[in-house]
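lol forgot to send this yesterday, sorry. struct tokens for the thing we talked abt
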């Protein structure tokens, strides 16, 4: 009987994916502890090849990637010969950006006759649909800010920079880079408190052009709503069908309480 391996990163997403799978083999990199799910196999990136070979011995033929994994610091003393041979290509891919590194990882997994599944195929109910998700629909200004943010992210897509930005009345306050959404919104909150205490503006979250959606799918959740509120923003615009909404009921309830509109755009 074939099994699915869930390679889990940090956060709540692995638990939500594990809940829709039939007895997955939950695996996690050393030092990473997913929320709400027990890890069966711990592995080191320095021994990635033996780890992937061992999955086949467990009856695994499909793999799904879920959760946040920061770029690891590799320990040369831990490498086996086969994984060490991959290091030059891996480093080159990592220098090309997150998408390049993930494409390298997916291709490596598939080279061991393992199919990489997309979260969108496994749990489409977690994705944002089109239109208002909260009780409050976006205002005309929020829609304009969302469109401006979409244009900013589209312009940055070839550089593989990030999946999010914040816009207020047509002005871009910040762009999500390597440190992620929390760092972007925290930076806006600190600077805005000093210069512009009034509320308004939109956080825009979208997938990158030509992004492989089987890994690193853009995600929002309760923490996003809290951070958006702290940053003085009043809207969250996501790409319909391309962004995960974690703990949906709690996320939308928090947004309604805070007066933050969340909607999916094509």
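and heres what i got for the seq, position by position
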């Amino acid at each position: 009987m074939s099994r699915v391996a869930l390679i889990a990163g940090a956060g709540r997403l692995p638990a939500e994916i594990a809940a829709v799978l039939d007895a997955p083999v939950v695996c996690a990199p050393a030092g990473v502890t997913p929320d709400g799910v027990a890890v069966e196999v711990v592995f080191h990136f320095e021994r990635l090849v033996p780890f992937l070979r061992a999955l086949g011995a467990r009856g695994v033929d499909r793999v799904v990637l879920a959760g946040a994994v920061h770029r690891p610091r590799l320990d040369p003393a831990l490498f086996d010969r086969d994984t060490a041979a991959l290091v030059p290509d891996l480093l080159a891919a990592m220098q090309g950006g997150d998408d390049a590194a993930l494409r390298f990882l997916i291709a490596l997994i598939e080279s061991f006759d393992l199919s990489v599944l997309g979260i969108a195929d496994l749990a489409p109910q977690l994705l944002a649909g089109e239109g208002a998700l909260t009780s409050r629909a976006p205002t005309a200004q929020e829609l304009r800010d969302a469109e401006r943010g979409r244009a900013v992210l589209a312009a940055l897509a070839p550089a593989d920079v990030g999946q999010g930005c914040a816009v207020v009345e047509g002005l871009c306050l910040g762009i999500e880079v390597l440190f992620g959404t929390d760092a972007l919104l925290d930076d806006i909150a600190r600077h805005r408190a000093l210069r512009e205490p009034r509320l308004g503006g939109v956080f825009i979250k979208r997938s990158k052009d030509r992004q492989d959606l089987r890994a690193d799918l853009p995600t929002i959740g309760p923490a996003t709503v809290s951070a958006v509120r702290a940053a003085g923003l009043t809207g969250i615009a996501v790409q319909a069908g391309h962004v995960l909404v974690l703990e949906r009921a709690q996320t939308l309830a928090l947004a309604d309480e805070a007066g933050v509109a969340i909607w999916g755009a094509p």
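Residues 217 and 243 are 6 Å apart (CA to CA). anyway ping me if u want another try
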